[in-house]
Structures are given as structure tokens and as C-alpha cells.
Amino acid sequence: MRIRRSMGILLGLIAALAMVVVPSSASGAGSGLDDPVKKDIAMQLVSSAENSSLDWKAQYGYIEDIGDGRGYTAGIIGFCSGTGDMLDLVELYTQRDPDNVLAKYLPALRNVDGSDSHEGLDPGFQDDWRQAAQDPAFQQAQNDERDRVYFNPAVSRGKSDGLGTLGQFIYYDAIVMHGDGDDATSFSAIRDRARANAKTPAEGGGETAYLNAFLDARVWAMKQEEAHGDTSRVDTEQRVFLNNGNLNLDPPLDWKVYGDSYHID
């Protein structure tokens, strides 16, 4: 009887523990933007703004100078010859495959870093980029640099600020466009401007109020550059999700960027 009673008590405790529900944040963040399904949604959202397409995996070979003062913009996340991230990408690719078709451009990429110059890149760089984009190793290098420089820092900072999936995406999109340097329009400066007007959830503030403050600061930063004066990726995309209370970035999603409509089931 003692054994049965002890076993009964033990089983009761196990059942009680199984019924315990760990409280989630008020945002309903779930597993966050690093969940594979949500990460793919994030890539589609960014691609709608960067490439006017939801097919982000078709963008490895994308390359053009969009006239924003950053030289060539290319690949799945808009690596730029004038901002250093394209140089880092080609260096990584060359470490993994020293004989790749882009390795010969490394001296030129170092020279044009910080400018909009094409010196040493033309006339063959764009064609060679498109050729390299057929190589799975270059595609993987783009994925890895995207995660190292943009995606992982955005998700980590978002989680530490108490933000759910939408907030993490809002951070990610901001880092993609503005980088995280020391200037007044960088991601960190945008975040500081937002925190001057609203507390993060981790600081005891409301998530929606803080994200509205962040998007206000993001719009201000975008308007400081003529090339980014169209703020629809905030106004008719991110702000729409926020106003709908979709803090978990759950589909279906409907939005517009630069006047074009998009949908994810």
C-alpha cells in the first residue's frame, strides 16, 4: 500500500507539473523571428521592398547601382560595395573558395569602400556576380553574412528589449536599410530616439507604444536621405501589421510597398 500510495503521489505530481503553463510575454511572441517559418516571412517582406518580389531566393544574382550613394547594391539583402558588407561577403566566399570568379575584385572592393565609385569593378563585375550567384557556396555565403551582420543581431536585440516577432522584424528591416554604425540614422541611433519617447517592454513599457515610437524614429531617419524618402515600407507595411495588433506576425499578411500590393497566406 505504501508503494502504491507513493507511486500515486509521484504520478500526481508529474501530472500537475505537466499542467503547468509557462507564462508567455504579452506580445504572444512564440518562438520569435528565428522560427524558420517566420524567418522566411521576414525574407519575403524585405524582398518585397528591396526587389519588388516575394521570391527572395531568386535574388542571389541581383545587382545594380540604385543611385543611393552606396555603389553597387546586390544579393538577397542588398550588400553594397560602398558600405563594406559586400567586401566582407566576397572575403568570406574567397576564404571558402579561393578560386571563385569574384576573388579578383577584392582589391577594388577595398578601394571603393566608403564611396559610390565603380573603379576597378567595371565592366565585368556585374556579370561575374551573376555567375557567382549560381554557385551554392556563394548562396550560402550570402545567407551566412545576412545572418551574422543583420538577422541575428536584430533578433537578439529585439528579444532583449522584450519584443515579439513583429518587433524583431521591425528591428531587422531597420538594420538592413540603415546599418548599425555611429551616424544619426543608424539602427542604434533610431533605437535611442525611440527610447527617448517610450520605454521598451523590457523596461516596463507597452510593446505597441514602443514600436510606434521606433517606427516614428525610423521614418525620420529615412527622410534624411533622398533615396529613402519613400517610407511606405513603414507606413503601408509594418505600421499596418502593428495597427492590426499582429505582434506575432501571423499570416495572412497583406501590405503595400511603393504602391505595389503583396499577400502571404
From TrEMBL:
GO terms for biological process: carbohydrate metabolic process. It comes from the Bacteria. GO terms for molecular function: chitosanase activity. Residues 1-28 form the signal peptide. This is Chitosanase. GO terms for cellular component: extracellular region. Keywords: Signal.
